[in-house]
C-alpha cells in the first residue's frame, strides 16, 4: 500500500489544544508505520484531493496538461528500420512547481506489450518563451532539448545527449521534436533524429486525444 498525500485534522493526544489541518506527505510510507499513525482516537484522516495551483511560470505550456491517448496509432519510420505503428499513453501534469512532469508509454498495437518509455520534466525560463525538455528513456538515453513555445506550439532540439556504455548501435546523435495543439483540440508530436549512420530524418508522428484534463 502506498499513501501519497493526506490531510490531518487533529488535537493533541489528551484531546486538548487547538485543532488544525496539516498537510502530510505519505509518499512510500510503510503500511506498518501508517497503521501506528492512525491509532490516535482523536485523529481524523482523509485523502488530500485538492489540486495544486498552476505555477504562473508554466502557464504558456498549460495546453499540454492532461492524460492523452494515441488516436489513431502513431507511425514510425527510419531508413535503418521497417515502418511500424504504436499506441501511446501520455501523462503531463504539474505539482505547483515551475515545471511540468511527463511520461510517455508506448505499446505494440496488437500484442499491447510495452515498447518505448520515457519520463522527465519540461521547464520554462521565467519571463521568456525558452523551454527545456529533460528526458530519460528506457533505451538508456538521457537528453536535454531546448527551444521555444509560441502559442500552442513547442519546437525543441537536443542540447545534450548521453547514453549508457552498452547502448545499442547505431547511436542517436541529435533529436528534434515539435508539439502542437491542432484545430480539433488534439495534441500532435513529430520526432526527427540523426544517428551515427543516418542524417536528420523524421522518425515518429503521432496524434493524441485528451481523455483526462
TrEMBL record:
SUPFAM superfamilies: Lipocalins. InterPro entries: Calycin, Nitrobindin, THAP4-like_heme-bd. Gene3D superfamilies: 2.40.128.20. Residues 58-210 form the THAP4-like heme-binding domain. It catalyses: peroxynitrite = nitrate. It comes from the Eukaryota. Coiled coil: none annotated. This is THAP domain-containing protein 4. The lineage of its organism: Eukaryota, Metazoa, Chordata, Craniata, Vertebrata. The gene is THAP4.
Amino acid at each position: 500500500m502506498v499513501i501519497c498525500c493526506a490531510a490531518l485534522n487533529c488535537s493533541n493526544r489528551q484531546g486538548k489544544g487547538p485543532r488544525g489541518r496539516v498537510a502530510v506527505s505519505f509518499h512510500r510510507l510503510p503500511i506498518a508505520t501508517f497503521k501506528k499513525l492512525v491509532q490516535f482516537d482523536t485523529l481524523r484522516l482523509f485523502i488530500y484531493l485538492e489540486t495544486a495551483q498552476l505555477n504562473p511560470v508554466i502557464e504558456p505550456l498549460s495546453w499540454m496538461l492532461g492524460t492523452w491517448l494515441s488516436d489513431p496509432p502513431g507511425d514510425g519510420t527510419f531508413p535503418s528500420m521497417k515502418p511500424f505503428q504504436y499506441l501511446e499513453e501520455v501523462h503531463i501534469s504539474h505539482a505547483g512547481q515551475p515545471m511540468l512532469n511527463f511520461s510517455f508509454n508506448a505499446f505494440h498495437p496488437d500484442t499491447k506489450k510495452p515498447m518505448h518509455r520515457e519520463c522527465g520534466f519540461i521547464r520554462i525560463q521565467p519571463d521568456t518563451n525558452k523551454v527545456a525538455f529533460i528526458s530519460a528513456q528506457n533505451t538508456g538515453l538521457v537528453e536535454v532539448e531546448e527551444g521555444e513555445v509560441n502559442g500552442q506550439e513547442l519546437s525543441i532540439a537536443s542540447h545534450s545527449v548521453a547514453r549508457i556504455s552498452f547502448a545499442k548501435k547505431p547511436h542517436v546523435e541529435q533529436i528534434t521534436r515539435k508539439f502542437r495543439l491542432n484545430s480539433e483540440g488534439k495534441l500532435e508530436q513529430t520526432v526527427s533524429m540523426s544517428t551515427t549512420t543516418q542524417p536528420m530524418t523524421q522518425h515518429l508522428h503521432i496524434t493524441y486525444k485528451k481523455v483526462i484534463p
